[in-house]
Amino acid sequence: MALTGPAELLATWEAGLAERAAGRALLLHRAARPGAAPDALLSAPLGERAADLFALRRALFGDRMEVTLDCAAAGCGAALEFELDAGELAAARPGPPEGGLPVAEGEWSLRFRLPGAADLAAVAAAHPPDEAHARHLLATRCVLAARRAGREATAEDLAHLPETVLKRFAEAAEEADPGAELTLDVACPECGAPTPAELDIAAYLWTELDAWARDLLLDVHLLASAYGWSEPEILALSPLRRRYYLELCADA
Q1: What φ, ψ does residue 192 adopt, rounded to 5°?
Q2: Percentage of the chain lying above the pLDDT 70 cut
Q3: Which residues pair with 220 in a beta bridge?
Q4: What's the pLDDT tens digit per position in 50-70?
Q5: pLDDT in tens, 147-156
Q6: What's CA 44's distance to the chain center, in Å?
Q7: Does 232 score more than 60 pLDDT?
Q8: Which neighbouring-strand residues pair with 81?
Q9: Residues 176, 97 contacting (CB under 8 angstroms)
Q10: pTM of the model
């Protein structure tokens, strides 16, 4: 991975301030793969995107990731803390299956591709009334080929995909792309009850980038005020030299 410089990262952060979660995730993915075409980022399987974001996190802030949450057991609420290794999670990058995901159920025989960010955004924009409709919209977007009772399925057929087919598709996608969702059961040290913890790497990384950007802009302000340097000149300094100049300002 080509490490993105501070000026580019600040531009990513600035653009993300006006975006919602999906837009911020796309901006972060673009920072992780600056040479990739926008369509490639939008169609990348979700597990591949997660691996790219873990690799970006590792390059920017290191391997160690600290996660905190509250115990979900009634009457407990103890603070839980655990660590993850961004390097290990970045390496979990299974490729999409050749020819798609085969699903056979009753009279149905289908091949699906793995969902990407564009699919999730399209389903969200359609405002499905419930989870069942959302699953159906996502599945039909990912269909590569479908046959019903030995003949090619029509659009009307696909509009009535049975729940059993949707379930098989979800199971096949989860098996083929396990990195799409990271869910852990964390045992509470106080009561022993397990608490499910789902880590959204895009949201986690955005929080870190936001804190980093605000700290860096404060450094720019202090050094510009003390020395009259421009923002590009200050950003061109290594973090070590920038910190040294800040220490000199504090001692002056």
Answers
A1: 85, -5
A2: 97
A3: none
A4: 999 999 999 999 999 998 888
A5: 999 999 999 9
A6: 11
A7: yes
A8: 68
A9: yes
A10: 0.89
pLDDT tens-digit map of 243-252: 999 999 887 6
In this structure, are residues 22 and 117 in contact, taking their beta carbons and an 8 Å threshold?
yes
Exposure string of 25-52, with b = 16+ CB inside 10 Å and e = fewer, is bbbbbbbbbeeeeeeebbbbbbbbbbbb
Tell me the β-bridge partners of 109.
Answer: 104, 147
What token pair was written down for 227?
A: 């020395």
For residue 113, the one-letter residue type is: R
CA atoms of 55 and 32, how far apart (whole Å): 8
Which single residue is written with the structure tokens 């609420």? 77
Say if residues 166 and 135 touch (Cβ distance below 8 Å). Answer: yes
**Mean pLDDT (whole number) for 9-16:** 96
- The whole-angstrom separation of Cα 172 and Cα 223 is 54
| Mean pLDDT along residues 129-149 | 95
The contacts found for 29-35 with CB under 8 angstroms, 24 or more apart, are: 29/53, 29/117, 29/202, 31/4, 31/56, 32/1, 32/56, 33/1, 34/2, 34/4, 34/8, 35/2
Strand ranges (DSSP E) for the chain?
64-70, 79-85, 101-105, 108-112, 143-148, 151-152, 182-187, 194-199
Q: Across all residues in the chain, what is the average pLDDT?
A: 92
Q: What is the DSSP letter of 81?
A: E
Quickly tell me which residue has 């924009």 as its tokens: 125
Quick one: average pLDDT of 137-161? 95
Check if the beta carbon of residue 111 is closer than 8 Å to that of residue 76.
Answer: no
Instruction: Give the rounded distance of the alpha carbon of 178 from its chain centre.
Output: 13
Q: How far apart are CA 143 and CA 165, in angstroms?
A: 12
